[in-house]
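Figure 6 in text form: structure in, sequence out.
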């Protein structure tokens, strides 16, 4: 059967997912595998989570490779992405998904918690996208999806670092969308609310649920569905958009 992302006789389109081994990234990988993409999965280092994902992708006959690097490590991230693109060619799609939180009120926030979040969640945009811009622009096609957060749209107490980084991503993505629009490359932002992954944790759910109009956490698959659509040919006229998946928070 010809998959949706493939024209008969063509190689499957290649998509890089940063932070692809757990949570939203993993759900996105499994969704894209069903749609016939070839996947490059990033995480910090090989782990039981990356092993089990690669096994599952292999069972689905999805061509997939692990590309481990720390998104916050500029030199290593840029070198890894540049080497992969030099060897295998430009990506069709990039899902800039890796992210962390280090929450706490600003008055008590240590420098390390501020810096770590900004270096990974915001600087990752530069570290990962910069080395693949020219090959993608030359190909004159492609899709970039940036994982922000409703925290970056409306702010969230205890998350000045995270809200700053995620708001910064929205600005960066909107600017990049303008730079790439004439090349046929779209850049869009997905802004999840509270999604049921390791990051969401298990504490405070009773306190949080009343502020979610739908009164439940989102499922990673509900974010993955939107990412898959934004990567598709059909989404070719959507760019510079910020789309919440938040049960009504934003
Ligand atoms: P998880 O914590 O479940 O998974 C994070 C993924 O990112 C893992 O695959 C992890 O791999 C990877 N990762 C972490 N640090 C690095 C790094 N330095 N370099 C490379 N990869 C790294 O997160 P979620 O799935 O919940 O979140 C995914 C994205 O969605 C994030 O950007 C997050 O900010 C955003 N988001 C999540 C929300 C939620 O409620 N869950 C809400 C709003 C936004 P490893 O195994 O190596 O750690």
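Output sequence:
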């Amino acid at each position: 059967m010809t998959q949706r992302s493939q024209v008969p006789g063509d190689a499957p389109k290649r998509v890089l997912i940063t932070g692809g081994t757990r949570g939203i990234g993993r759900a996105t990988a499994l969704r894209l595998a069903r749609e016939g993409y070839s996947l490059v999965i990033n995480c910090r280092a090989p782990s039981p989570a990356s092993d089990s994902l690669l096994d599952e992708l292999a069972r689905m006959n999805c061509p997939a490779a692990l590309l481990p690097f720390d998104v916050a490590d500029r030199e290593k991230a840029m070198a890894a992405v540049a080497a992969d693109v030099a060897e295998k060619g430009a990506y069709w799609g990039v899902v800039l998904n890796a992210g962390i939180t280090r929450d706490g009120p600003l008055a008590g926030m240590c420098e390390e918690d501020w810096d770590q979040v900004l270096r990974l969640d915001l600087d990752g945009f530069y570290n990962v996208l910069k080395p693949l811009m020219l090959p993608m622009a030359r190909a004159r096609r492609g899709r970039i999806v940036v994982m922000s957060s409703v925290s970056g749209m409306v702010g969230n107490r205890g998350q000045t670092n995270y809200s700053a980084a995620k708001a910064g991503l929205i600005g960066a993505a909107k600017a990049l969308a303008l730079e790439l629009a004439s090349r046929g490359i779209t850049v869009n932002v997905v802004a999840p609310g509270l999604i049921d992954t390791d990051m969401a944790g298990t504490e405070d759910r009773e306190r949080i649920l009343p502020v979610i109009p739908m009164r439940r956490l989102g499922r990673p698959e509900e974010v993955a569905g939107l990412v898959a659509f934004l990567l598709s040919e059909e989404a070719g006229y959507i760019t510079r958009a910020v789309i919440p998946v938040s049960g009504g928070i934003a």
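Caption detail: The pocket of NDP is lined by residues 18-25, 42-44, 47, 49, 70-72, 97-100, 120, 147, 149, 192, 194-195, 197-200 (CB under 6 Å).
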